[in-house]
């Protein structure tokens, strides 16, 4: 579709003056954009920019404080949304079959209300064939890899008759070939007059498949227009301070003590892996969701069994009993303890430190927790507050405080800035810089190249559970990282 063709079409989706705040934090600040029928429209921005809030409003999970959302000129209602969305968590159920997941929200039933299993199985086979996924419809979803699950989610979307389709980081788990295959199928849907919104960090996909791009940063639109070149998108997407604030030395520096290492190390999921992280160094590993990126972090953190090779974390005194602090990739399901307060969430990994003879020293625990709350500016600064009452960004800072309280020799941080606003993102970057300056070693696993470029001294690329390259971060651009991962 050309720009001239687009300008003559009535928008299938209109968003005008969209505003949303959580407490005193303004997440969306009068956001305006349009999606035309037949258009693949990229919605871009760093973690915490406001993209996920827009998607939640479109899906009906959140209500906007102000603004208008229209489909084909009509106000978007709760009863007839006409929007199909694949969220980052895919919205699938591992214990059900592929067929059951495809028809979970709209089963094929007889007039007596019984599920027509044979009919579903036949239709599911057609959907899976169209998406290029050669599996039996009765396969248990939990037996599939993350990339295959993403394709199942897309197959379910393909059966939709919605006017707007939203793909929220769906291709993050796919190889470049798989992602191109999926987006080509999505293009067929768009050509039938449907508007498609693609939320992605993979900027090459935007240039290859999207004719329009909207960039949001810190809740405000900074660009909306025809898709620019990859280099121009980089300038919209990445703030100057990512590459300019910190002058990186060539690390590891001569004489820096080795803190953590994996040598020809294998587990059930990854390997062989060779990796060394030195005192005062930040190493970032980047890859797709299907690369088994996080599994390497789990291995170094001691959360996976070593089947061959060796793993070692050294203490500041040089012994092989160094302390490790771990922040998981999914704070909601793997990180925060929802039934506990902020104080318990911070101290839970350091009970030996705050206890004596098996009893928790309450006053000592409170003083230590207060110090970490102040250090990371957790808000509200109230140790007895329920962890669920905190925003996502403050929950993430709580997990960082939990890690810091262990006074570790090695920090293993998976997706440290996922789902946080720009201010929290910078606070976490500052925290990482402070702990490395104090001599700790830091390993980061992320699919977000901006995180890697903002804090890392070296950047490694992970494919199929192995580190295939390692480079000095100095001089690298987001384009270099994207090309290496893709």
Secondary-structure topology with pairs:
Elements: H1 3-7, E1 13-22, E2 25-35, E3 40-44, H2 51-59, E4 66-71, E5 74-75, E6 83-86, H3 98-102, H4 117-131, H5 146-158, E7 164-168, H6 176-191, E8 195-199, H7 203-209, E9 212-217, E10 220-226, H8 230-237, H9 240-244, E11 258-266, E12 273-278, E13 282-286, H10 293-300, E14 308-313, E15 324-327, H11 331-335, H12 342-347, H13 351-354, E16 355-356, E17 359-360, H14 362-376, H15 392-405, E18 410-414, H16 422-437, E19 441-446, H17 449-455, E20 458-463, E21 466-472, H18 478-485
Parallel strand pairs: 3-8, 3-9, 6-7, 7-8, 13-19, 13-20, 15-18, 18-19
Antiparallel strand pairs: 1-2, 1-4, 4-5, 9-10, 11-12, 11-14, 16-17, 20-21
Helix pairs in contact: 4-5, 5-6, 14-15, 15-16
Portion of residues in beta strands equals: 15-25%
Residue runs with pLDDT of under 50 for 5 or more positions: none
Question: What fold name goes in the CATH topology slot of the largest domain?
Answer: Rossmann fold
CATH architecture of the largest domain: 3-Layer(aba) Sandwich
Mean pLDDT over the residues = 86
Determine Rg (CA atoms, Å).
24 Å
Domains, number: 2
Main sheet characteristics: 6 strands, mixed
């Amino acid at each position: 579709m050309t720009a001239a063709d687009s300008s003559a079409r009535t928008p299938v989706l209109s968003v005008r003056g969209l505003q949303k705040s959580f407490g005193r934090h303004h997440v969306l600040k009068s956001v305006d954009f349009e999606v035309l029928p037949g258009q693949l429209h990229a919605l871009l921005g760093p973690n915490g920019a406001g993209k996920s809030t827009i998607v939640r409003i479109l899906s009906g999970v959140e209500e906007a404080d102000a603004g208008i959302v229209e489909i084909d000129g009509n106000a978007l209602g709760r009863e007839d949304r006409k929007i199909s969305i694949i969220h980052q968590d895919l919205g699938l159920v591992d214990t059900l079959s592929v067929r059951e997941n495809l028809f979970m929200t709209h089963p094929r039933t007889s007039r007596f209300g019984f599920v027509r299993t044979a009919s579903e199985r036949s239709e599911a086979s057609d959907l899976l064939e169209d998406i290029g996924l050669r599996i039996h419809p009765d396969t248990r979803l939990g037996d599939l890899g993350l990339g295959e699950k993403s394709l199942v989610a897309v197959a379910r979307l393909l059966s939709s008759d919605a006017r707007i389709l939203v793909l929220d980081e769906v291709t993050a788990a796919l190889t470049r070939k798989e992602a191109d295959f999926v987006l080509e199928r999505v293009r067929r849907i768009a050509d039938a007059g449907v508007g498609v919104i693609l939320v992605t960090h993979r900027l090459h996909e935007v240039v290859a498949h999207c004719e329009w791009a909207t960039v949001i940063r810190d809740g405000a639109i900074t660009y909306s227009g025809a898709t620019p070149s990859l280099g121009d998108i980089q300038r919209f997407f990445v703030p100057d301070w990512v590459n300019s604030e910190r002058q990186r030395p060539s690390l590891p520096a001569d004489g820096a003590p080795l803190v953590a290492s994996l040598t020809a190390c294998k587990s059930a999921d990854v390997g062989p892996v060779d990796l060394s992280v030195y005192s005062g160094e930040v190493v970032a590993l980047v890859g797709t969701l299907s690369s088994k990126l996080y599994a390497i972090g789990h291995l170094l953190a001691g959360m996976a069994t070593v089947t061959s090779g060796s793993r070692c974390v050294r203490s500041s005194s040089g012994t092989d009993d160094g302390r490790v602090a771990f922040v998981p990739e999914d704070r909601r399901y793997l990180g925060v303890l929802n039934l506990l307060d902020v104080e318990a969430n911070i101290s839970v990994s350091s009970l030996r430190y705050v206890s004596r003879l098996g009893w928790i020293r309450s006053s000592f625990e409170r003083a230590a927790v207060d110090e970490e709350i102040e250090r990371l500016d957790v808000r509200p600064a109230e140790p007895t507050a329920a962890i669920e009452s905190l925003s996502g960004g403050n929950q993430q800072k709580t997990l960082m405080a939990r890690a810091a309280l262990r006074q570790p020799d090695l920090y293993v941080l998976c997706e440290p800035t996922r789902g946080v606003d720009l201010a929290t993102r910078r606070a976490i970057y500052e925290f990482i810089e402070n702990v490395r300056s104090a001599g700790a070693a830091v390993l980061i696993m992320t699919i977000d190249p901006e995180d890697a470029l903002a804090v890392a001294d070296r950047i490694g690329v992970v494919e199929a559970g192995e580190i295939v390259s390692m480079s000095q971060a100095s001089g690298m651009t987001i384009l270099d990282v994207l090309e290496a991962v893709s």
